[in-house]
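INFO  loader      accepted 1 record
INFO  loader      residues=286
INFO  predictor   begin
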Amino acid sequence: MTGLVYIGLCVSCSVAIAQLLKKVRQSELRLLNVLVINYIIAAIISFIMLDGPISSVFKADGSVIIIALALGAVFIANFAIYSISLHRIGMGISIAAMRMSLIIPICLSLFVYNERISIEQYLGVILVFAAFYLMLPVRITGSIRRPGDILYPVLLLVMSGIADASLKVYEREFSTAIQGYSFLGLIFMSASIIGGITLIWKRDFKFSLKEILYGIFIGVVNLYSSFFLISALTEIPGSVVFPMVNISIVLIGALIGYLYWKDKVSGKQLAGLILASISILLLIGF
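INFO  predictor   done
INFO  writer      dumping tokens
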């Protein structure tokens, strides 16, 4: 039951991130500026929450520190590639690539860490992918017109999958060597430094009050989205946690979109929402 609570908290934080980012786009704020503030805040809170002095972060095994810093580059690069992908090939293919990235952490959990799940949960995992397909946007604004464009969905799939899978690897391999807040703090610190250097290079290192405020809000929920996901992975197999978290985010996001943003829902998407609900029940084990 504790694991399900962690999943619920993770989903709540992730849905909040999605809604805040939608507000950022509507307000025509500079996304990279918001992301840099978000990562700075997430890193600061991570280090404040440490059980010990900040210096203890850098006393961990060197390989763990290098992996965490490298993941920071993956996290912020994934956002950048997603933005480019939306512009070059459209929303439908970009979202599909990010959702299909789920296959990477699921395969890691099942075939590398040999997790055991029930037949019903296997069926739930399969239904998740079917639900994702049905819930794709009706209008796909763009398509793959040039051979080089195929690179963007491929990168999105791989990098999104690596970002999710890295938290499973941490839970299994490094959780005894370095605190969760330390590991996440290093990731977010790395991402903020890379983002800051990019802004300086672009000569755009200025922040509006709105960008700072949105960055602060996103930073808090971004940190705890990852923290609660790691906590859930300690209680429930990753092959169940990852599909359940992702499909719940999409399901709740779609409901909020319909009720608050007045988004239109097609018959196909409605079928996807129903299928998503069934998959969640199967994954929980009802």
